[in-house]
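Crash report, auto-generated. Payload:
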Amino acid sequence: MTAWVGALVGRVRFTELQLLVVPSVMTVVGLLTIFLASTRDLNWDWRDIWVSLAFMVAVFGISLWLSANQFRGDQVIFPIVVALAGLGLLMIQRLAPDLTEADHAFRNLARNQLIYLAIGLSLLLCVCTFVRQIGWLRRYKYTWALLGLAMMAVTMVIGTELNGAKLWIEVGPFSIQPSEPAKVAMVVFLAAYLAENRELIVSNYRVGPFNLPPIPYLMPMVLMWAFSLLIVVLQNDLGTAMLFFGVFLAMLYLASGRLLYVVTGLACFGIGVYAALQLFPRITVRVSNWLDPWQDPLDAGYQGVQSEYALATGQFFGTGLAQGNPTFIPEVHSDYVFSAIGEELGLLGAVVVLLLFLLLAFRGFFISLRARDTFGQFLAVGLTTVFALQSLIIVAGVVRLIPLTGITLPFISAGGSSLITNFLMVGLLMRISDPDLAR
Amino acid sequence: MSTFIRASAFLAALIVLAFGFTGTGESADRTWLVCLGVSGALFTVSWWPSSTRSLPLYNRTLLRWATIVLVGFALVSVQLVRIQIVESARISSRVEETADGEFIANPRARLASLEARRGRIFDTNGVVLADTVLRDDGTYERRYPVLATAPLIGYFSPSLFGSSNIEREFDDYLSGARGGNPIAEWLDGILNAESAGYNLSLTIDARLQQRAVDLLDGRPGAVILMDASTGAVTAMAGAPVFDPNRLYANLGQQDAVELAAIHAYWQELIADPNAPLVFRPTQGLYNPGSTFKTVTASALLDQGIATTGTIFRDEGLLEVEGRIIEEPNRPDPSQVDFTLEQAYAWSLNVVFAQIGLQLRGDAIWDYASRFGFGDAVPFDIDTSESQIAGSRDALNSLTLLADTGYGQGQILSTPLQMALVLSAVVNGGEIMQPFVVHQVIDEEGDVLTTFGNNRWRRVMSADTASAMRELLIATVEYGYSTGAAIDGVVVGGKTGTAELDEGEPHSWFTGFAEDGDRRLVVTVIVERGGPGSQTALPIGRAMLEAAMQDERE
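Recovered output after restart:
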């Protein structure tokens, strides 16, 4: 009997369970706060906060399921992600009623986000449970690359334009943001390519008196550069371009250790973007809104101005969840969700969100260090870098360190493509961290 | 990398950031972005992982990449601190006008004031001075029925110009965020419930305030009437008066035409050379002229150097370091010996210049400080700091010291400060902290909080105060303030005529009347009003008389 209990207890993912307590309690208490603030009354019922309770049951269920399946992967990543996704859940639950009041088109926002969250969590569970090895990802690297390119290319051609950026494809009632799955495809391809050609990329070859970098093996770099610029020009989407090119450069550097590649790449990207700005004036709107939204505070600069009001109103402790007015900011549920956090949870909440992303990044780097083969290492660091760069680019845009871009804040912004892809990436990370992973 | 380089890079990064914080405050100001970039590079140097050759290449590059990510997050956090803490107040109250005359302001200010019924403000007899009225569209609007008290109460213009005076300082009570049951308020906060604002009851008597404004008759100046025994201010009027009804602005309530009118009125007020937005009783700084002799005389008496009977000599001229001070005030040019009482009653500059020299700079500085000069007077609304001289050392100059003795020199005083000087004299040497907001009352009429009746500081001994009081009474009996006498009432007072570099002098009167337990103190200044006894004194007398009639009714 004791041996049986001992064996069971030994298998339980205790660290994960303990770490899950705080984020799940936060989701429950947070939703209760939002509910009370909306009714202005002290009467409530457990049914009023079923969303958070369900979320809590789901995440604890997943953790216990993983324990039961003797999954031995990392125990820290999941709680961090649950904290972020829980906050995202709260923000959407909080914003959706106000948004719906102003515009009926938002009536399904909260419900849809819940469905996406459920799909995302299931996907994570499936990846952790059923994917026993990741060699196939590596083998079909060119397939992934082509798939990713195709998705992006299709968007560029037949994509729907929204808020000036062409990011979506309409498929029946759904609109999909192909850059989200495409980024995973790119990371998988790069990880496989770099793991295979690492030695060649680092080597030099001599032409007469010159030591030249291995040009043929750096061709993808040129392709990436051209591709990113295409995104800027055709989709008017600086954020995705920065993300793709940034992830690419980071992975190239991590594999080769050559700072020269990074510097050259950055310079080329800078020149390319500058040229694009000169050639396509409509892109410059984003830059002038970044430098001074007050030039046109009622139209193009409106978002920037309202976002700054919101952040400044938040001060240190924030107005409190559901006590502020972040819905003055257009697109507050997607691009500017970080401003809503800044207003209602204050500097404290905003910095905690940043710290969570930083923790996620560092934990991912740690997983990468411990991975058993080069492909696993590169894949882990690539996926982690996507999280780190994506959160940095959008947040830096919101606080006006760089021009605002239309990419999502992982796990928090509304949007199905993004949420589901992010959970897929987390699933892969957890899978890579599993010492039992078959090669 | 050596510890030294790391430490200095870190320090340099902090210095660069600190420099950046002193800039314009714009979030994407070029200089600031450059500062942030430079500090980012310095942070990278400071945190760069030591080159550990023993580690595999990948581990080294990963550590470096992690460092860069860390720096990225650090920079974003710095920017957040800048927006949410350092520049927060400036940004959230920022108002801009576009070329088309549209206004952009933080829409949050108006929401708060639209949702909750802001507390009303009453005078001491229950007259409504500030009201919140329900409009047809279901929103609330702020109204000020009594214009005479409006500048004291201030304006309330949440979406355009913020608020001022009582509207600003007591906003927590008026908006209902503070003042009642703290647990209920906390719960209201959690529930984001509309809490009705609390009402304020002032010590002001609207009739006396109206009288003061009528007496000033549009001439720039100030009138303060207070009870020195409690510190309660009964009238505090400034002229010219502006109309805060015309500044009330809540975006969403007014259309563009109305907003433009509000803005135009604001511009008009700002452009007005008489600065109606400056609340003169507490913010106006004037040379006090001879009314300052009360401070000089109190210092002299309190130090025990002289009594009211001590003889001083005034031959009509006094030379100080080659500069001649002429005596304009002797009633009889043949008289050269004067008691201190006579010198005060006839406001003899030469005598008070001598007293200044006799006291020396330190004593004058110290006594004036005791009266409150050099400190912001603790009061319910913003007060300016009165000054004795530019600096303590400046009083080492004998000419300045002599000028200070009789009230010229570099002295700058608010009318409130001069009222407090007199209130120390009639209140046994002790100043009661002045106050104008008496009670916080809820909608049912229950008193939640009562303010006032706090002692502020002791300035001089009771004996000195009583001797000083005699000087003031003598001035009304036979000196230059005889016009202030009221039958059957003990009245004292001192006029002041503050000479300016050019044009008419400022006209001052500070006086008191004893009415039962009340020690009514009045202070009047009329800018460029001419001799104190002609312009300010009649206003002061009328106020004292009105205050006492009021009491008897």
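Post-recovery validation: Chain B touches chain A through 49 residues (CB under 8 Å).
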